[in-house]
Amino acid sequence: MDDGEASVESPPLEELVISTLAGMQGSSEDIRASTLKRAITRIDPTFNEADHGFRGFTELLRHLADRKVVELSGPKRDPEVDLVTGDGPAQVAFDLLVAVVADKAGKKGAALSGLKTEITRRDDGFNERALGYGGFLQFCKAAAARDLVSMAWDDARGDYLLSPSG
């Protein structure tokens, strides 16, 4: 009974950490483990790393770092946390987004509204939610935060336009 209740009450652990971290990265450069945990407990007041088999939040983050979900740097006690920029689970999806943007971007850029369709045409297994993002916009914003693409709102089109970075 507890397992069913836990899955209904809160999103999967990786999704919760990634989506919270991705949301925070737009407003702050350096995100410490303690800051991330406070943000997670604001989202889910029942969150407790012990419920997932970890003695502390830093141990949980080290587990996610070993799985290439997050990167840790700085002091061991309260490390900086970042989304993986290397060969993590999301990297293939980010590479695909970059390729689609490069192919579709005209002089002004590629409209966000058509990108997901093209990505799923090229990879029918693509699912930004499985990577921990709340939606496709959040996934694209995370790519922009990593400087993989440039992203700007276009009032004339009423849509975001993405362009290759650089």
Brief rundown of the structure:
This protein has about 170 residues and is an alpha+beta fold. The protein is built from seven helices and five strands; from the N terminus they run ααααββαβααββ.
What does this protein look like?
This protein is about 45% helix and about 15% strand. The chain is α+β, with helices and mostly antiparallel strands and about 170 residues long. It folds into two domains: about 1-85, Nucleotidyltransferase, domain 5, CATH 3.30.420; about 90-165, 2-Layer Sandwich (Nucleotidyltransferase, domain 5). The strands form two sheets. It has a three-stranded antiparallel β-sheet. A hairpin with a 6-residue loop joins strand 1 (about 70-75) and strand 2 (about 80-85). Helix 2 crosses helix 7. The protein is elongated and about 50 Å long.
